TrEMBL record:
Stretches that traverse the bilayer: none
InterPro entries: Cro/C1-type_HTH, Lambda_DNA-bd_dom_sf, TransReg_Diox_bact_type
PANTHER family named among the record's database cross-references: HTH-TYPE TRANSCRIPTIONAL REGULATOR, HTH-TYPE TRANSCRIPTIONAL REGULATOR SUTR
Domain of life: Bacteria
Keyword annotations of the record: DNA-binding, Transcription, Transcription regulation
Domain called HTH cro/C1-type: residue spans: 29-83
The name this protein goes by in its record: Helix-turn-helix domain-containing protein
Pfam hit, one: HTH_3
């Protein structure tokens, strides 16, 4: 499905893309935390945020600031560029699978 950039249609397309990015980040965060066998509480403590905030990040209900993104990458012992690259790959896969279902 191709959406032309006109009026509210472009807004819907942008919102869908933003949502897929947020969900991809949430999935990557959860996967990396689980791989390290960390609880949300442990990771939240390492990052310097509340556990409920970490839970909301993993549920795609909140978006991190750049500062929090960097702290998450540090806590997961990966470069921020690697973390964001993995998120981009997840987003592309998610978008491709969504398109193939339509």
């Amino acid at each position: 499905m191709r959406v032309r950039k006109c009026g509210w249609l472009s807004i819907v397309s942008d919102m869908e893309r933003d949502e897929s990015l947020i969900v991809a980040f949430a999935d990557e965060l959860r996967a990396r935390r689980s791989a390290l066998e960390l609880s949300q509480e442990e990771l939240a403590h390492m990052v310097g945020v509340n556990r409920t905030y970490m839970a909301k990040l993993e549920l795609a209900q909140n978006q991190p600031t750049l500062t929090v993104l960097q702290a998450i990458a540090n806590a997961l012992a990966v470069p921020l560029s690697e973390l964001l690259g993995a998120v981009a790959v997840r987003q592309r896969r998610r978008s491709a699978s969504t398109r193939s279902r339509k």
